[in-house]
Structure formats: structure tokens, C-alpha cells
Design goal:
The protein has 78 residues and is of the alpha+beta class. The protein is built from two helices and three strands, in the order βαβαβ. It has helices at residues 17-28, 53-65; strands spanning 2-10, 41-47, 71-77.
Length: 78
């Protein structure tokens, strides 16, 4: 059994409204040095019975987990 982590973020150049809100809030709380904040999502799951867990996770990302038009993803398999 493999433990899979998929990190999904908006691609560079796509406006990250949540990231801008987080950045503004951090500035308001006194952390003026914060810049270029991006908010993404982490999807974790156990995958059993896959000969190549990374390839299976990639197929999942391409079909469901990431909107590849505006998002990129990174896969970790442990």
C-alpha cells in the first residue's frame, strides 16, 4: 500500500484571490514581509493494488483532482 499526497496550486499568472486575502490579512497583523502568498490544496490518500502508484495518481489528477487548465500539481508517494 502506498501513501499518496497530491499538492495542487494555481499556475503562475492565474490570480489567486485567496492568496491575496491571506497576504493582506498577514500584513494587517504586522507581517509586512509576506509577499506572493498562494493558497492551494493537499489531497492525501492510501492507494492499494497499484503497480505504479505515481502513474495512477497522475491519471487521477488529470481526470479529477486538478483543473489542469489553471492548476498544476505535485505528487509524493511514500
Amino acid at each position: 500500500m502506498a501513501r499518496v499526497k497530491v499538492h495542487v496550486f494555481l499556475k503562475p499568472g492565474v490570480l489567486d484571490v485567496q492568496g491575496k486575502a491571506v497576504e493582506g490579512a498577514l500584513h494587517g497583523l504586522g507581517w509586512a514581509g509576506v509577499a506572493n502568498a498562494r493558497v492551494g490544496k493537499l489531497i492525501e490518500f492510501d492507494l492499494d493494488g497499484a503497480a505504479d502508484p505515481a502513474a495512477e495518481a497522475k491519471a487521477m489528477c488529470e481526470k479529477l483532482l486538478a483543473n489542469t487548465v489553471i492548476e498544476s500539481y505535485r505528487i509524493e508517494v511514500a
